[in-house]
Design goal:
hydrolase; Fructose-1,6-Bisphosphatase, Chain A, domain 1; single chain; Inositol monophosphatase; 27% strand; magnesium; metal-binding; 272 residues; D-Maltodextrin-Binding Protein, domain 2
């Protein structure tokens, strides 16, 4: 019986490693396609607001990723930004896709955008990937896998004063001091606003930021959520709850060891 259980666990790990390898292959392929078409004329449409944009490239990348995933794993399900794909991460084997995170940056700057994938089994994150396309930096790992940027293993968070670190936030939150974030920013070395959740999360993972705060959808934070704990970070709502992976919420990624220190700012609430 013990041998059988070990054999089954070994088979499961082998299958998961293959799935992780496959995820890297398809995200690199998607990035290469975007680079080949970076300066194409784009058909830009507005979604919920003038800054919430979508292009045919968002649709193309998502459709291609979904097609490749379901061709290889037809029993798996999809939660994704476009086309109303909204499968619960708690129900079976689920891929979470953000085809172009930072679409406005992609349109206007041709930089600071990312492709993101995450994979969950019955609500448990198995791995995440954030691909900073123009810098050719793939952040990958989580679950059973160590977290890397390309071939460099990323270090665990080093607990230093906030004044030694940069922080990043949604610009509107800072402007209106929502959740006390403008007050908190004055405790830090400086502030960065990247216009992409994926780029911001990646910079937290790599040690370039101490924390990131914004209003995010599940596909914005899923990949970083899976990788965070391996490096001493946590992704949660700004009032300290688990994200629900169903709607847009005020989300932060911050070091587990700094959560108590953050509370004196965050307890001011979003209307401050």
């Amino acid at each position: 019986m013990l041998f059988r259980r070990r054999k089954e666990r070994g088979k499961e790990a082998f299958l998961l490693e293959n799935k992780f390898r496959f995820a890297k292959e398809i995200i690199y392929q998607a990035g290469a396609f975007l680079l080949d078409h970076l300066y194409d004329d784009l058909d830009v449409k507005q979604k919920s607001s003038p800054t919430d944009l979508v292009t045919e490239m968002d649709q193309k990348i998502q459709n291609d990723l979904v097609k490749k995933i379901l061709a290889r794993y037809p029993e798996d399900a999809i939660l994704a930004e476009e086309n109303g794909l909204r499968h619960s991460i708690a129900d079976g084997s689920v891929w979470v896709i953000d085809p172009i995170d930072g679409t406005t940056n992609f349109i206007t700057q041709k930089a600071d955008f990312a492709i993101m994938l995450a994979y969950f089994e019955n609500g448990i994150g198995q791995f995440g990937l954030i691909y900073d396309v123009t810098r050719d930096q793939l952040y990958h790992g989580g679950g059973l896998f160590d977290v890397y940027c390309n071939d460099r293993k990323l270090p665990f968070f080093e607990n230093k004063p906030f004044s030694d670190y940069l922080m990043a936030s949604n610009a509107g939150m800072l402007k209106h001091n929502h959740w006390g974030l403008a007050d908190f920013s004055r405790e830090c070395l400086g502030v960065r606003v990247y216009g992409s959740a994926g780029i911001s999360f990646a910079k937290v993972l790599s040690g370039g930021l101490v924390a990131y705060f914004s209003y995010n959808w599940p596909w914005d934070y899923a990949a970083a959520y899976v990788m965070a704990a391996k490096l001493g970070f946590v992704i949660q709502t700004l009032d300290g709850k688990e994200p629900d992976f169903q709607r847009q919420e005020p989300i932060m990624m911050a070091p587990q060891s700094k959560l108590k220190d953050l509370q004196k700012y965050l307890e001011k609430g979003k209307e401050q």
